[in-house]
Records
---
Amino acid sequence: ILILLNITACGSNSEDNNTDTQPNPFSFSSQENAALNSISISNSVTVSGINTQSPIKITGGEYSVNGNNYSDTNSFVVSGDTIIVRLTSSTEFLNTTRTVLSIGAIQATFSVTTMAPDTAPNAFDFLDQNAVEQATLYVSNTIIVSGINTSSVINVVGGEYAIDGGMYTNTAGTVTNGQTVSVRQTSSALPSDTTDTVLTIGGISDTFSVTTSNFTVPFDVGRAGNMDGVKVWQLPDAPNGDKPDQSWLAVGSDNEGEIYISGHDHISNSILYRLHQADGILRWVGDARTASETADNWEFGESAEKFHTRPTYHNGQVYVATLDKSGMDSAYLNTRGFHWYSYDILENEFFDLSAFEQGGVGAQQIQLVTIQKDAKNNLLYGMSIPENKLVRYDIALGQTTVLGKPVEWEKSSHPSLSRWNGYFYSNRFMWVDSRGRVYFTGGSSRNQWNQGEPASTLDHVWYHDPINGFGELTDFKLQGPNAMEVGQWDRAGEVLYTSDDQGNIYRFVDADASWSFVGKPDFSAIPSGIPKVWVFQLSADAEKIYIGLSDVSYPNAIWEFDIATGKTKELAKLSELDSQASTQDFITGYDSWDNNGSFYVSNFTMYNGVNVYMLGINPVRVKAMQDSSFELVEIAAQSTEAGVTVSRSGSVSDALDVLYEIRLFDGQGVRLDTILGETTVNVGQSNIELTTISLNLPLANTFNHAEFVVIADGNDYVLSDVHKVVLETP
C-alpha cells in the first residue's frame, strides 16, 4: 500500500520556504554638541541578513541609499546596500532631535543633541593710547566678537561703546558673534593722568586706557570755509613757541585717511601735525627739536629749517626727514646732516630715528628735499639738495646708506659747462616700482632755479636698481629738463601720474614699466607767467586730477584736469573757498586724501608771521556749489542676508560707477587685507544688490570679519553717513 503525505507550513507556501526580510540589527551613533538648526548626518550602516527586498521607512528625517539622493518616502533595500540618515537639529540649545529608521521589523534611532549656549567670547584687546590731549574724546580700535554661539550681554564702565559702527551708548545691551565693537572716552583734564574704559562681554573684559600728555597739546578745531565742502584749520604754535609759517609740499595721509601736515619756520625748527578724522581736530604730534632733545641728539646751534618731505605712511609709522639748507650752493656743508623722524601712530609718539645712527644723523652734511618708501622691501629713499645724492634707509636695521648719484650728474662729466657750479634743482617727487627700482629726475628750465646744468642729461628719467645700480632711461622723455614735482599712484598702485612744476603730466605703468606723456592743462586764462604746480590730487576713480596753481599773475586757484579728454576747467579760486586763507601767497600738497573724498593743501606766505592754513576741499561738493547743473549724488550701503545693497540718491538717468573696498580683519580687529572693487548702478536703477558670492571673498577660515566700504571717488558722488557695513559672510 502506498501512502502519500502532503504537509504545508502554516502561513507560507512551498515557494517562500527560504525568504528572509528581517535584517541583522544595526545602529546609529548619537551626536552631541551640534550647531543649532543644522543638518546632521549619521554614520553609514550596511544591510545584511536578508535574502530579498525588505521595506524601508523613516520618521523624523531622511535616508540615502548607496549615496543617492535623500528621501523620506517608503521604499525597499536589499542586502549590501549602505544607508545613512540625516536630520535637522533643534533650534534650541541642549535639545535632542531623533529620527527612526525601520528596515523590515528592525529599527534604529539616530539622536542629535545641540550644543550648550556659550556667551563667553574669545579674549579681545583694546590698544591703549598715550601722550594724548587733555579733555578730548578718544575712540579705541575696533574689536570683533568671536567664540560665542548666542547673544551675549555687553556693558561698559567709564565710557561708551558702539556696535557695528552705530551710535555710542553706555546702556547695557547684547551682541552676537561676528559683530564689531569700539569704545570711546574723554581723556582726563589733568596732565599725565590715566582714565579707563572697561568693556565686558559675557563676563570677559578688557580695558581701554588713555593717558594724557604731561603738557597741553596744541590743537585747532577748524572752521567752515566759504562754501559747502571746505573746511579750514590753522597750524598752532609748537609747545616751545615755534611758529609754523611755511609748509612746502608737506601734506600726506595714511591708509585710514588720517591727514598729516608739517609746518616750519624755515629758520630753526620743523613740526608735524595730525588731523584726526574721528573728531576733526588738528593736533601737534611732535617737532624736530623736541624729539632730538629727548633722544639727547640735538647739538648746540643746530637747526631743522624744514620738513620739506611729504609725511609718508608705512606699517603704522609716519616718516619725515629734515632739510636744513635748501639753497643751490655750498651752505649745506656747514650743516651737521639730516635726521630721520617717525611718528608712531599707535603710541602717539614722535621719535628721532637718527639718534641711533652713527654720528646721530642719517648722513653728514646731507639734507633731504623728498623721501619715498619701498613698502615691499621695508625701505625709505631720500634725495638730497643741492648735491642730488640718493640715500636709502633700512627701517629694520635703522641704518642709512648714501648711494650717491649717476656719474653723468657729476660736474666732472661736463668740463665744458664752466658756468655750472655742479648743483641743480632736485626732484620733489620720485617713485619706487614693484621691482624695487627707484626713479628720479632733476633740473629746472626756470631762470629762478636753473644753474646752467646740462639739459640733455636731465631731459629724461634716471633710476637706481638695487642690483645693477644707477642707469638712465632715454626713452622716458620729459618736456624739457624739469624735475618731477608732484605725483600720485592710482588706488591699486598700478598706474602713477606725475608732473613737473609747470604742469607737464606723465603716466608710469608699473606692470610693464612704461612711460608716456599725458598732456599739459590749458592755463591760457592766466594772462602772463608760468604758474607753479604744487597741488596735485588724483581722484580715486583716476579720471580727474585737481591741480593747484600759485605764484603767478592770477589768483591762486584749483583746476580740474580730465585725463581722458585733456580738458581743463577752473574748479574754484582760493578766495571763493576761504576769504582769510586766500590772502596768503602759496598753495601746496599732493596725494593727501581722507576717507570722505576731501583732499588737503597748505596755504601760506614766507616769513610773514602768519601760521600756515590747511584747507580740506571736497571737489564734488565744490562742483555742486559752483555748477547748478551738477547734481550732488550720495551713495549709501546697507547690509542684507545675501550681501549688501548699494544705493544712490537723485536722478537715475545716467549709469554711475561706484568704488568700494572689502576689508578683511582678524579676531582682534587688525586689518589683514583689502580687496578693491567697482560696481555700476545702471540707468534707471537707484540701487544694486551685491551678494557675498559675487564679491569673491577668500576662504572663510582665512579671516574673521569683513567690512564693505563705499569709497568716495572724488569726482561724481559723495558718501552717505551710512556707507560702511559688516558683511554677513558664510
---
Amino acid sequence: MNSNSQAYQDLRNGLEKFAKELRNSFVFQAKDDNYKIHFSGKQREMSFSSLVPTRNKDGKTYTVLSKIFYKFEDNNLLRACLKEKDILIISAEPEYEVFLSNLAAVDFYYGKKSSLQELSWEESFDDKDTLPFAVRMKLTQKTDNLSAQPFTKSVILRRPDEGA
C-alpha cells in the first residue's frame, strides 16, 4: 500500500473513532459545579465527556467515563483522554498524542438549531447545560505530489425534537 493510500485509511479510521466518541458524549452532571464536564468547542479545539471502552489488566473490556480533548496544532490533530478518577482532578493536564497527522487544516463547527428548525454552523460552542445538535469537522489532508484532499465529517448529537 503506498503512503497516500495508507494515509487515507488512517484518516478514515480516525474519523470513525472521532464520530463514535462524539455520539457517546453527554454533559456530566455533578453536585459541585467544579466537577461538571460540559461540551466546549472552538474552531481548532474541543473537549467533552464520553464513554470510552478500555481494558483492565486481565484483558476484560469495560466502559469508563472519560473527558476527551481534540486540538489542531503543527499539522496534526491531537487527542487526549482523561479517564475515570483523573477527570475529577481539576488541575489535571491532558497528555496529547498525535491522532491524525500530515494535515493542512482542521476546523470544527457546531450545529445550532434555529427557530425555523434549520441548522446553522458556528465556530464555537460553550453552553454549559447541553450539547450542540451536531459537530462538523472539516479537514484537509496533505498528500504527496497531489492537490490537498478536503474531508468533512458531520455527527448528529441530539434528536431534532429536543429543545434549542
